[in-house]
Design brief:
The chain folds into 3 domains: 3-83, Arc Repressor Mutant, subunit A, CATH 1.10.10; 91-97 and 108-155 and 267-290, Periplasmic binding protein-like II (D-Maltodextrin-Binding Protein, domain 2), CATH 3.40.190; 162-260, 3-Layer(aba) Sandwich (D-Maltodextrin-Binding Protein, domain 2), CATH 3.40.190.10. 45% of the residues lie in helices and 24% in strands. It has helices spanning 3-15, 18-25, 29-43, 59-83, 98-103, 105-115, 128-136, 178-182, 194-205, 219-227, 237-240, 275-290, and strands at residues 48-51, 54-57, 90-96, 119-125, 142-146, 154-169, 185-189, 212-216, 232-236, 249-253, 260-268. Helix 9 links the parallel strand 7 and strand 8 (212-216). Helix 1 (3-15) crosses helix 4. The longest helix has 25 residues, at 59-83. GO terms for molecular function: DNA-binding transcription factor activity; transcription cis-regulatory region binding. This is LysR family transcriptional regulator.
Length: 294
């Protein structure tokens, strides 16, 4: 048994198909099959159920996958640490909410890339809930999330203060009147979005408990539906200000108790902090220092 066998085993488990795994890894199929048989002989147990659609992990197979993930993660971390030099290089994997990715990150990532072009930047977007989980699982090295984050395994850096704005098609709301809100469709991101949680909590505090909801997965989708007059949504002012005047979108600021939300950068305390990571922290610290409180 070697690390390559474990890497191939993980790929087969994720794909559920030996043929696809062989294509993905540029192996011949018989080579992949031989590696799986070698592991089954090593542990004296069946790791996969074979069926016409591919393969499925057995109970022992799921146990081995759990250990394989840990082993491969540790080996990747060891390689990253041992190969770290004074010049930032390698891959830096980050996560961000869509609103932050659309407005705040372009300048930050551009500045970072200008200084450290040898670093390959990887960015995934998601809700605050998804990004916290990805950071805790160490699938990414850090993420920009919203609201309060209090977890013993996470380090938290305050970065931005975002003003929250209610946006609607022009003339669809004359003012921020609760009676009007009751009749509106509320356009929100999927569950796990911190801004959605804030908005729903605020609506409930005003007695609006059964508002019609339209759930979307992308920022472009939310903005498109608002432009079309399908409902109203809660966005950051940094996003709302980017909308063209010709889009006929009006903005209304929420009351003081929910008008401002902090954006934080989080990372797992025990990740390997490469020089690429340390330099990124310096860049976002600089960006935070330039951020004007709202």
């Amino acid at each position: 048994m070697n690390l390559e066998d474990l890497r191939v085993f993980r790929e087969v488990a994720n794909e559920g198909n030996i043929t696809k795994t062989a294509v993905n890894l540029n192996f011949v199929q018989s080579n992949v099959t031989a590696k799986m048989k070698r592991l089954e002989q090593k542990y004296e147990t069946k790791l996969f159920y074979r069926h016409k659609h591919g393969v499925t992990l057995t109970s022992p197979g799921r146990v081995l996958l759990s250990y394989a993930e840990q082993i491969l993660h540790l080996m990747d971390e060891a390689e990253k640490t041992l190969k770290t030099s004074g010049v930032p290089s390698g891959t830096l994997s980050l996560g961000s909410m869509e609103t932050t990715a659309a407005t705040r990150l372009p300048d930050i990532l551009s500045t970072y890339h200008d200084h450290y072009p040898q670093v390959e930047l990887s960015l995934q977007t998601g809700t605050t809930e998804e990004l916290i989980k990805a950071t805790l699982d160490r699938n990414i090295e850090g993420a920009f999330v919203a609201g309060g984050v209090n977890h013993p395994e996470l380090e938290v850096t305050e970065v931005f203060a975002e003003q929250l704005i209610l946006v609607s098609k022009e003339n669809s709301l004359s003012s921020l009147e609760f009676d009007q809100l009751k009749d509106q469709t509320i356009i929100v991101f999927k569950s796990g979005c911190f801004y959605r949680e804030v908005f729903e909590t605020w609506l409930r505090s005003k007695g609006i408990r059964h508002a019609r909801m339209m759930e979307l997965n992308t920022l472009d989708g939310v903005i498109g539906c608002v432009k079309a007059g399908l409902g109203i949504s809660l966005l950051t002012k940094s996003v709302a200000d980017q909308l063209c005047k010709n889009d006929h979108i009006q903005q209304m600021r929420l009351p003081g108790e929910v008008s401002t939300i902090s954006t934080k950068f989080i990372n797992h305390r025990e990740i390997v902090k490469t020089s690429a990571f340390h330099e990124f922290i310096k860049v976002i610290d600089s960006a935070a220092g330039l951020n004007i409180p709202l």
